User: Which sequence fits this backbone?
């Protein structure tokens, strides 16, 4: 039995906040951040200028105070009144010298990520040629990078109006040096439609070295962003919690995907209102910021929710080895073998949510019914066995296979099926995918006969002719694709079973139900077999899009009290030639 692990899903997140949120003076900010429970902070523009003007001895003294308070400044924001794109050569040189000196101070303070506004937005807003503006910016960046302290990265922040490609062009023209990276400002990007936060993060990848996390409701102006007074929209609100409209699931998921290792820095406005008593107020707000950030940033939209009876997988331990990987994502269980990858979804009836063999999609993407057991057939009627999730009771590792047991019950509105216990067993091994359904009669009286439908959906291509979309049964019967339904009846099928399925289509008797399905791009078909009890019928339907469904239907005999009915379907993974 796989045992609990109890590990934090995100142990490396380092929550930070811009230091000016803690107070007007750097020392006051240190004390307040410490009391609020922060261990990391970004040195703000205001505090950068204050400390710099005190001289080098004061820099070292502030580093000592920060160490004593347990606050590490690994990220800092360079003053923004230093546009690198000016035409005035003397002014450009002066600004570069200022930035070099600030970076020297940052090195003394232990800062490794220096965030910079490259400037040029004013020039671009007033119609200057973008290529000319970029050329001046790149020249300045190269000179600054040449003298950057060892171990420090200069991080280019996206301003309102900047797309990823706008920022990326600077890195490319600089030659993509190791000490030049990105700082994503989530608020600035959100008022630059139609930018996507997740796409920006994934494109930046490992070059994303810093992040300014804050929220807003999007652009509150019309016209081009660079020509608008975007301060009206750039509110620097706390992320989520009904304050803004950024999709934080997208942001968090993408940051985890790229393995972001910088500070998770809140760039929150230090606007506390003149009418609010100052004593104790900032301390309270800072503590709330830290507690909310702990909740939000450690929330993994792909991870189980502890305590959820359906999808809490915290008691099961992932597996990672050469021949088998088992991982848990929110709502889903993912198994990976050398030849195929498959995902089970307990929340949606235990369906297989995805399935790839040798990189080819076997299931129709995003189907709500992929390889599940959603219903029962009765004369001229269809009812869902269950509508909600199944509990994951067991996950066992046997040799090189994974066996999971899920359970649920039929809803009360289904008359004689009410409260019927269902057990679904999914077993994944290197060369097979096996599904077993168990139904038990818990009622004191004998149950009438009905039928259980296994719903399979596959993604097949090949147009309107047979080749890869062909389905061939064990007796040699092959199905043409004519966009009508077919039902293949076995000798023990009830007479009225076809009436439950077809209004218009084909009825074909066959002696055995095992069949093969041609797969796109593969010389070998996927083989479906039924160990033990054969189905009573198999329903097939094809569509113009090339998507087909194959539905084995098992006839359930009248069950005595306490009797269990079992149906099994197995897919054999084709051997690679």
Assistant:
């Amino acid at each position: 039995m796989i045992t609990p692990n109890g590990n934090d899903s995100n142990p490396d997140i380092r929550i930070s906040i811009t230091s000016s949120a803690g107070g007007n003076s750097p020392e006051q900010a240190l004390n307040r951040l410490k009391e609020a429970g922060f261990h990391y902070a970004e040195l703000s523009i205001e505090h950068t200028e204050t400390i710099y003007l005190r001289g080098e001895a004061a820099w070292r003294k502030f580093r000592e105070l920060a160490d004593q308070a347990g606050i590490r400044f690994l990220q800092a924001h360079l003053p923004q009144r230093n546009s690198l794109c000016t035409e005035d050569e003397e002014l450009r040189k002066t600004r570069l010298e200022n930035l070099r000196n600030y970076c020297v101070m940052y090195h003394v303070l232990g800062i490794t990520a220096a965030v910079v506004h490259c400037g040029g937005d004013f020039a671009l807003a007033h119609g200057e040629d973008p290529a000319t503006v970029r050329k001046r910016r790149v020249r300045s960046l190269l000179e600054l990078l040449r003298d950057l302290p060892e171990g420090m990265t200069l991080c280019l922040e996206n301003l309102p109006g900047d797309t990823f490609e706008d920022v990326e062009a600077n890195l490319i023209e600089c030659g993509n040096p190791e000490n030049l990276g990105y700082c994503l400002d989530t608020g600035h990007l959100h008022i630059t439609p139609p930018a996507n936060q997740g796409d920006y993060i994934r494109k930046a990848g490992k070059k994303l070295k810093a992040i300014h996390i804050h929220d807003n409701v999007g652009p509150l102006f019309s016209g081009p962003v660079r020509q608008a007074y975007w301060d009206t929209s750039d509110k620097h609100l706390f992320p989520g919690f009904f304050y803004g409209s950024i999709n934080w699931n997208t942001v968090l998921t993408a940051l985890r995907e790229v393995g972001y290792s910088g500070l998770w820095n809140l760039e929150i406005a230090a606007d506390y209102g003149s009418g609010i008593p100052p004593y104790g107020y900032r301390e309270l707000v800072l503590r709330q910021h830290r507690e909310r950030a702990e909740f939000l940033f450690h929330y993994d939209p792909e991870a189980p929710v502890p305590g959820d009876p359906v999808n809490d997988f915290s008691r099961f331990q992932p597996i990672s080895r050469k021949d088998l990987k088992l991982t848990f994502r929110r709502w889903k269980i993912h198994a990976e073998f050398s030849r195929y990858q498959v995902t089970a979804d307990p929340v949606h009836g235990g369906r297989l949510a995805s399935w790839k063999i040798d990189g080819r999609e076997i299931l129709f993407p995003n189907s709500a019914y992929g390889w599940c057991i959603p219903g029962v057939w009765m004369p001229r009627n269809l009812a869902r066995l269950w509508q909600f999730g199944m509990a994951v009771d067991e996950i066992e590792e046997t040799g090189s296979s994974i066996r999971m047991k899920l359970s649920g019950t039929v809803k009360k509105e289904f008359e004689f099926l009410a409260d019927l216990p269902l057990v679904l067993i999914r077993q994944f091994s290197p060369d097979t995918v096996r599904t077993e359904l168990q139904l038990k009669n818990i009622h004191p009286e004998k149950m009438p006969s009905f039928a259980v439908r296994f719903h399979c959906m596959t993604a097949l291509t090949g147009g309107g002719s047979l080749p890869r979309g062909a389905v061939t049964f064990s007796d040699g019967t092959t199905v043409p694709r004519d966009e009508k339904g077919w039902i293949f009846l076995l000798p023990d099928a009830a007479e009225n079973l076809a009436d439950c399925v077809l209004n218009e289509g084909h009825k074909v008797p066959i002696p055995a139900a095992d069949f093969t399905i041609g797969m796109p791009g593969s010389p070998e078909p996927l083989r479906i077999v039924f160990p033990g009890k054969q189905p009573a019928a198999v329903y097939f339907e094809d569509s113009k899009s090339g998507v087909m469904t194959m539905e084995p239907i098992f006839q359930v005999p009248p069950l005595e009290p306490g009797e269990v009915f079992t149906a099994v379907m197995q897919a054999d993974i084709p051997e690679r030639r």
Remarks:
- The first strand starts at residue 15 and ends at 18.
- Confidence is low (pLDDT under 50) at residues 1-10, 379-383, 460-467.
